[in-house]
What we know:
It is built from 7 helices and 19 strands. By secondary structure, the protein is of the alpha+beta class. It has a 10-stranded antiparallel β-sheet with strand order 8-7-10-11-1-2-12-19-14-17. Helix 6 crosses helix 7. It is globular. The N and C termini lie far apart (74 Å). 32% of the residues are buried.
Amino acid sequence: MKTFALGLRQGLQRTIYPLSETTTIGRAPENTITVVHQTVSRQHARLSLEGDNWIIEDLGSVNGIVFEGKRVDNLKLRPGDTFRIGEVEFYFFDMDVPQGRTQYLETVEILLAAVEEDADHLGQGGTLQRLERIQDVIARIPLFSSLEETDYRRLVENAAFHVFDAGELIIQQGHLGGSIYAVLDGKVRVFTKDQRDNELELAVLGPREIFGELSLLAGKFRSESVTALETTVLAELSYSAMRKLMKEYPDVEKKLLRYRKERFQDMEKKLAGARMRIPSEPES
């Protein structure tokens, strides 16, 4: 049994996007895959499954889709194909999953290694090992403790996986956010900036912890920035996936609301403390 994915390398960041339904790519946050790059249009391209084939089509973007050096309006993707959205390069590849096994990403390391290989090697696929690894990490996140096993699988099937090196910016304060992140490995630093552009650390998070829930629930701009403190593997859960999950599991929404309240109160307390420590401006 095969499942398909897009691989993306942008700077030091590496990302895997599993494909299971119609997927849009663009700079706007409402896209399935949001790519913040000046050469990418707000609504740039759409991937859809037609029969057994994944088709990518241009949505009237400025810089188009480039395949083998030529701009194309649409393209039937084959495993191993490489194409560019603006100046951002994607790989399309397949993954062999043994019959009777679930179709989600069994180990982040194998997929990331695949993205680093040549396009010819990407097309070969391969049997994935250690089926339970990611599901086990997701299952240990307190937010998802009430889920059934089939829902863990579905959640991971539709998650995007990212690897950030130490010092890389993951989310930026002031940007519109529509997803949450679960830390699978590594550590991240959550911080905000005051009106004087001074940084205030809010938290250091590790495996099985989440961030980004403030923007997800409020539908507002990010109130904090997050950077990787070391090589960090993240699962990104989209707004639509989380909304479906909260509808089926009200307990998930209750936990998110509680996390949001606690973190918002903690942020306000730390900001208030920082304001008290700032010396007043000298009189002229």
